[in-house]
Amino acid sequence: MNKEILYSVITPVYNREDSIMRCLESVEHAMANLNGQGGNVEHIVVDDGSSDHTAQLVEDYARCHERVRFFQFGSNRGTNAARNKAISEARGKWCIFLDSDDYFVDEALQTISDTMQSQPEYRHYMFAPDDMQPYYQSNAILQGAQQKVLLYPDFLNGYVGGDFIHVCNTEILRRHLFDEKLRIHEGVFFLMFFREARQMLFTNKVVTIRERNRADSVTRESFRTSLAVINRTIIANELRLREFEADYVRLGMARQLRNLRLSLLDNYLLAGRYKDANGMIRLLGAARTSKYRVLKIICAFRMGWLYRHMLMLLLFVKYKVMKKRID
C-alpha cells in the first residue's frame, strides 16, 4: 500500500467465525464505494486468541486483500487489549471502531469522509448505528437533530449517553489507551477522549448495522453475576472517580458525583469490602435516597453476600429465564 492512510478501521475479534466474513466484506464494499479513495483506508483486525476458525478465516482473507492487516494473540487477553494493539499499529490519522459481529452499510466510509471533509475542525466525530435511533429521538439534546455539536460536559453529566460509531483522532487514542485489566467498561476512556477533543460532531446518519443480544455478546460481561465482574466494575468506577472527580466539582455536578460514589458503595458491598464501603458512606454523608438508606443497613449488618446472591438471581431470571433483550 503506497497511498497515505487516512482511516484505520479497527476490529477486535474473538470466536466470531459465524460473522467475521460479513464484517470484513462490508469494509471492503465500503472502501470500493469511497469515490476511488479506498486506498486511503486500512482494516486492522486483531484476533484475541480465538479457539474456533476465526483466525484462519481472517488470515486467508487478508492474504487476498492488501488493505487488511491481521494480528493475532496467542491467548485471550480481552477486547481492550485487542483495541490497544490495533491503535498501536494504526497508520491512519483517524481510527474507526467496528465490532466483529457488526457491519458497515455500503456508503459508510463515504458518509464519514464527506462529513469530515466539509467540517474538518473537529478531533472526534460520531455517527449512528442502526439500533440507536429510538434513543436519539428520545434524548432531549439529540432529538430531531441531523447534526449536533456535543461537548465534554454533556457526557460527563449524563445528558448524552448511549452508543455511537466513533471516529477518533489516533494521537488522542494513543495518549489514553484502554485499561486491559477491565476488558470492557470503555465508557470511562471515551470520556478521556471527549475531554481532550472538547467538541465532538455527531451526524445522525446510519453507517453500521449491529447484531444485538447474542448469547456470547461482550456486553453481557458487564452483568454483575460474579465477583470477577463486580471487581472489574469497581476498578472502572474508581478510575472514573480518580480521573473526573475534579471536573465534577469544577462544573458543579454534585448530583453526578454523588451517584458515582453511590455506585462504588453498591459494588463495595457486593464484593464484601466493608472498610471501603464505610469510607464511601463517610464521603456521602447525609445523602438522602431510599437506596442509600438500604445500602447503609446492608453495610451495618454485613449482608453484602446476601445482597450479591439476590442480585445474581434477579439477573439470571431477567436475562436467562425471561430472555429480556439488552437495551
UniProtKB/TrEMBL annotation:
Residues 8-118 form the Glycosyltransferase 2-like domain. The keyword Ion transport does not apply. CDD domains: Glyco_tranf_GTA_type (cd00761). The keyword Transferase applies. Gene3D superfamilies: Spore Coat Polysaccharide Biosynthesis Protein SpsA, Chain A (3.90.550.10). One of its GO terms (molecular function) is hexosyltransferase activity. InterPro entries: Glyco_trans_2-like (IPR001173), Nucleotide-diphossugar_trans (IPR029044). Keywords: Transferase. This is Glycosyltransferase family 2 protein. It comes from Leyella stercorea.
